[in-house]
Amino acid sequence: MTIRRGQAWGENVAVPPHLVSIATDGDLARAVLRGEPRPIRLVGGDLFRTLGGQSAGPGLQRLPIDVLRVMADGRQFVAVAHVVARRGGLFGWWRGPILAAMNADRIGSWNVAPRAHPNDGRAEIVEVGDDFGLRARWQARRRLPTGTYLPHPAIATSRIKVQAWAFDRPRRLWLDGIELGTVRSLGVTVEADGAIIHI
Question: Could you give the CA distance from residue 127 to residue 186 in angstroms, rounded to a whole number?
Answer without folding.
Answer: 14
